[in-house]
Amino acid sequence: MGDQSNLQALVGEWELAAAFEPTQSGGARGRVEFEWMPGEQFLIQRWEVDHPDAPDGLAVIGAADDGYVQHYFDSRGVARVYGMSFGDGVWKLWREGDDFSQSFTGTLSDDGKTIEGAWDISHDGSSWEHDFDITFTKVG
After folding, report:
1. pTM above the 0.85 mark?
2. Closest CA to 121 of 98, 104, 140, 139
3. CATH number for region 4-138
4. CB of 60 within 8 A of CB of 46?
5. Backbone dihedral region of 116: left (phi > 0), alpha (psi from -120 to 50 degrees) or beta?
6. What string of pLDDT tens digits covers the 140 residues of the chain?
7. Residue 68 and residue 91: Cα distance in Å, rounded?
8. ∠ at Cα 123 (10, 130), nearest 5°?
């Protein structure tokens, strides 16, 4: 099972800045909050983004046999399940889907106040391309 104490580094309020490819109309700003559910067995992630192509959402993160799992829900009605790891300052998310596959890698700064990350996407399950960059800056 994943070590829940690792996730404590995510707890708090963060500003986000996403840099989309030029064909995706620029970038977006928003806020993300991570908080423990009572009992500290699951971490709740909520976000709001100021860009029409970037949905608001909610995710529930919990321990799984091989690390963590993230259950993702957004304002478009999309629900997904991601595999997740978080340790040694590196946060990873991944999923394989019939429509497309995704992966995220973010690096937590030494002071714990910034996460620099990027999402990659694959439409055929084998060749990957950069989707967008995202930076989280802790504000509370």
Report:
1. yes
2. 104
3. 2.40.128.20
4. no
5. beta
6. 446 788 999 999 999 998 876 555 567 899 999 999 999 999 999 999 998 878 999 999 999 988 999 999 999 999 999 999 999 999 999 999 989 999 999 999 999 999 999 999 999 988 999 999 999 999 97
7. 11
8. 50
